[in-house]
Amino acid sequence: MRIAMAQMSSGQDRADNLRRMAATLDRAAGQGAELVLFPEACSYRGPLSAEHVEDRTGPTLSLLSERAARHGIAVLAGGLWLASGDPGRPYNASVFVGPGGEPAAEYRKVHLFRLRTAEVDEDEGAYTTPGERLVTVSYRGFTFGLSICYDLRFPELYRALARSGADVLCVPSNFSAVTGAVHWEPLLRARAIENLCYVLAPAQEGVSPDGFVTHGHSLAVDPWGRVLACAEDGTGLVMVELDRGALDQARGALNAPNETVPAVYGGQVALEPAHG
Fold this sequence. Notes:
By secondary structure, the protein is α/β, with parallel strands linked by helices. It has helices at residues 14-30, 59-71, 155-163, 177-195, 244-253, 262-265; strands spanning 2-7, 35-37, 74-82, 91-97, 103-108, 114-116, 121-123, 136-139, 142-146, 168-170, 198-201, 205-207, 213-215, 219-221, 227-230, 236-241.
């Protein structure tokens, strides 16, 4: 399967972001993409405001649905604010739109970003309602497990997705440059290796309107942990092929995901004194 990942530098002008997303979808379709993934905060990146909280009939999903149907391709909106019932704390949701233009799956970000350093003081939970369930979606012979950005730090989430049949782990992100320089690639490769899954991580790059500096480096990793593609600086498309044979070969060679021992992990941890 041919995949396109869009690296973006989204701003506060949603109409402009959507114009660029439409052009990206047209370009990706012209290059034979069957699925296009956009990063977190793809259609709006800036401070929370009521006018940028959408529902499934809002401008972002309306555009993506129209373009998906026009080209007969699927689209992942990596992360946008969707109404939660609490106007001050919407969901940060990733929506998978099928090739007929219908929203096929919606994942609401479970783990909300928190970081306190000299450069960044952020608590996403102050203005976002966390999700409470995991989601996979089947498309053209692959099962995609959905997640968003900060979820990457929680391996239990990805193990649960893999146990539910995920072949591809999607991690659309707006990842901090402070942590990204050290953590981004190792964590993505670890999630692939631990679960013998492809990992696709389209990312924001540059500086957001509120001064948040992002890491960029959209990354695709194969089930053996090899980097298939990494975005250069700037915005654009990363193209990658998913190979069912390579996935089956990795899983045939190494059975580690099926050799876990939950009964041991959930038991008491012994603390033995070392004398002397």
